[in-house]
Specification:
The chain is α/β, with parallel strands linked by helices. Helices cover about 50% and strands about 20% of the residues.
């Protein structure tokens, strides 16, 4: 099973969702999870390098040489994890439609699309959904698509309006992830939030997201 975070707009919490979602799924399902960093910015790779916990073991870093073919490198990485039974793979893609994002579009079973409480984010999410719905060459079946409200603020009127707009689009909408300090603090020390503050409200949100996603991929 391959899950990819995808969004053409940066700063939406895509890497934060990939990392914490992977940990929460591993904890919930007792399955091995591998995180593939397919973003040339290497945010997930640097995050994992700051600590010695889950991410240091689970992340396969972005380490494509300047003269190497990134698609060939990523295809090799996929072939390795594909050989493992009962395994989950989470891919963190770039905030653009580059060659590796296209490769993810061809292979991922589920796409998780982060959406901040912003009209621009909502428009960007619709663009991604339309791209997937148009059909992807090389796929025999369409992937599942789920939206995750990201960096929401409690009692914020705009967050509520965006949440209503997401529900109205007819897509699967998973549990919202709040704009929590614990998420940023955990990343600074190379941890996921559940390792850093296991009793924080942010950790509860990641667990809720994992429960919903787990039910979705068992359909």
């Amino acid at each position: 099973m391959i899950i990819a975070t995808l969004q053409r707009k940066g700063g939406v919490g895509k890497t934060t969702i990939a990392a914490n979602m992977a940990y929460a799924l591993a904890s919930l399902t007792n399955r091995e999870v591998t995180l593939l960093d397919w973003d040339a910015q290497g945010s997930l790779t640097r995050w994992a390098g700051r600590g010695s916990g889950f991410l240091s073991r689970a992340v396969r870093p972005y380490n494509v040489a300047d003269d190497a073919d990134p698609v060939a490198w990523a295809t090799d990485a996929l072939s390795v994890v594909a050989e493992r039974k009962d395994h989950l793979t989470v891919i963190d893609t770039a905030p653009s439609y580059d060659d590796l994002s296209t490769l993810a579009l061809m292979h991922a079973d589920v796409f998780v699309i982060p959406v901040q409480p912003s009209p621009l984010d909502l428009e960007a999410a619709h663009d991604v959904i339309e791209l997937i719905e148009q059909g992807i060459p090389g796929r025999s079946a369409p992937p599942l698509v789920a939206l995750v409200p990201s960096k929401t603020k409690p009692r914020a009127d705009l967050s509520a309006k965006i949440g209503g707009a997401l529900d109205a689009c007819g897509c699967i909408v998973l549990a919202a992830i709040g704009d929590r300090v614990a998420n940023a603090e955990a990343a600074m020390v190379g941890m996921v939030t559940a390792e850093y503050k296991p009793r924080d409200q942010a950790t509860t949100e990641w667990a809720n997201l994992a429960k919903q996603l787990s039910k979705l991929i068992r359909r």
